[in-house]
Amino acid sequence: MSATTDDAPQDEYDAQRHAGLYGAQRFKAMSAVLLALLLSVLDYAIANVALPLIAQDLHASSSRAIWVVNAYQLANLSCLLPLASLGARVGFGRLSQVGIFLFLIASVACALSQNLLELSLARALQGVGGACIMSVNIALVRFIYPHKELGRGIALNGLFVGLGVALGPSLGSLILSIASWPWIFWINLPLALAALVLAHAALPQTPRSDIPTDMVGSLLTVASFALTGVGLDGLMHADFLSGGIVTVAGILCWAMLLRYQRERLEPIVPVDLLARRPFLLAVLVGFLGFVASNLYIVAMPFTLASVFHREAGTIGLLIAPWAVGVATMSFVVSRLADRFPASTLSSIGLFITASGFCLLWLLPTDAGNWDIAWRTLFAGFGFGLFQPPNNRAIMVAAPPGREGGASGMLSVARLAGQTTGALLVAALFTVFAHPAFICLGAAMVTAFTGSALSLGRKYIAV
User: Fold this and answer.
1) CA 113, 118, 124, 128 torsion-angle sign
2) How far apart are CA 131 and CA 102, in angstroms?
3) CA max distance for the chain
4) Does 351 have pLDDT greater than 80?
5) Are residues 371 and 388 in the same domain?
6) Cβ neighbourhood burial of 16 (10 Å; 0-12, 13-18, 19+)
7) Range of the domain at 407
8) Considering the entire predicted model, what is its pTM?
9) Could you tell me which residue ranges the Major facilitator superfamily (MFS) profile domain spans (predicted)?
10) Positive or negative, the Cα torsion across 108, 109, 115, 119?
11) How far apart are CA 356 and CA 384, in angstroms?
């Protein structure tokens, strides 16, 4: 069975444009893509571990120190679509190299920061560099792998995301056990330099769009994401006045942006792609999957501490099976993503994830470590099965010339889902006195909803 039959019509790709690379060329190009990806994901995961030490050293409160993470994620999310559009004009490989260079410079700035404002601004620059990498990451994979093997490339991409998430906390803890927190940023330098050299030598030249860069649309897109994100964060923390004002400003920017984009031939927010039902459904399924995952990932440490009474060291070990499951299944599914449609594989994957969350939700408070760990691993297996086929469905639903917009939307679905999940956790912790199992229940329901939507896509998309 071919995934193409259910996920996109046969004419949605150009045989010459998407012929791919072979042999040593493919190996070197994919190595460059994966090294840049690992740089972005690993640093995000490592920084989370250092927050308590950063807050203490820079004399900042825990709530303010969270902006070390928020500044990165908000800048990353806000810039993804404008940079994906820019990548189509300057070349995906060139933009990836710019992103690696920005990431390197920002890492030095982070390590040298003397106060929280400096560190947050440097992290925002890192987020822009990460957005350069992530916005064109899958678009490059689209040109490295031939159409019939695209699922393998996307699954390998997912494997390295899982590895970065799994290695980040452990590597961060190791660095902090022998050095001060600036070293979690200094460690980026050799990795970034290696990625930059390899990217310059090996990334393929991709076709470029000759449509001029839309500066007005780019600025409106950044403002829409940034204002909405900051406003919703304020609302979820019960700062209703300022949060409400900023959120309304964000919504107004969205209204102006979408109206403005209707007249554009290649809109930055790809409304032309979202008008294609297979593309829209794949994006929605991806969004729901990442909402569910972050409802679990953000809330589970609190659940393990307050409900299951585990210590900090044990909490890290009990969450690690999630990343191990995601990475392992991403490797296994690489052979399946090109043979079976996302309406089958992704639906099964999210159903398994939801079932894992359900099994965790049903645990008694005196459950042993093994009981928690295998259920977490089971949920991770499901998420690893869900991601690559759904990501493939997003990419093959885009016509030739719109790989950049599709790659950008894929990353937006992931980051918007993660951000929404984190905001929902903040809201549930604000409203309920004991929200731990409520978050797990919300993650379970969201994953089941995503599975049902994925299963029905071949009927809805007709």
Assistant:
1) negative
2) 10
3) 62
4) yes
5) yes
6) exposed
7) 267-461
8) 0.79
9) 29-459
10) negative
11) 13
Instruction: Give domain status of residue 250, yes or no.
Output: yes
Residue holding tokens 């350069």? 132
Residue with tokens 């965790």: 360
SS3 labels along the chain: CCHHHHHCCHHHCCCCCCCCCCHHHHHHHHHHHHHHHHHHHHHHHHHHHCHHHHHHHCCCCHHHHCHHHHHHHHHHHHHHHHHHHHHHHHCHHHHHHHHHHHHHHHHHHHHHCCCHHHHHHHHHHHHHHHHHHHHHHHHHHHHHCCHHHHHHHHHHHHHHHHHHHHHHHHHHHHHHHHCCCCHHHHCHHHHHHHHHHHHHHHCCCCCCCCCCCCHHHHHHHHHHHHHHHHHHHHHHCCCHHHHHHHHHHHHHHHHHHHHHHCCCCCCCCCHHHHCCHHHHHHHHHHHHHHHHHHHHHHHHHHHHHHCCCCCHHHHHHHHHHHHHHHHHHHHHHHHCCCCCCHHHHHHHHHHHHHHHHHHHHCCCCCCCHHHHHHHHHHHHHHHHHHHHHHHHHHHHCCCCCCHHHHHHHHHHHHHHHHHHHHHHHHHHHHHCCCCHHHHHHHHHHHHHHHHHHHHCHHHHCC
Domain membership flag for residue 5: no
Do 293 and 256 belong to one domain? no
Total domains, the chain: 3
**Can you read off the two tokens belonging to residue 137?**
């990451």
- Give residue for tokens 């920084």: 47
Whether residue 14 is contained in a domain is answered as no
CA distance 183 to 199: 25
More confident residue, 131 or 206: 131
Tally of CA atoms within 13 A in the half-sphere of 90 that contains its CB: 16
Do the beta carbons of residue 270 and residue 84 sit within 8 Å?
no
Which pair of structure tokens corresponds to residue 169? 């906390």
Q: Which domain-ending residue is among 204, 225, 243? A: 204
The identity of residue 141, as a single letter, is V
Higher pLDDT, 430 or 268: 268
pLDDT for 383? 94
Average pLDDT over residues 346-358: 96
Q: Tokens 């099965």 sit at which residue? A: 385
Contact, 332 vs 383, CB < 8 A? no
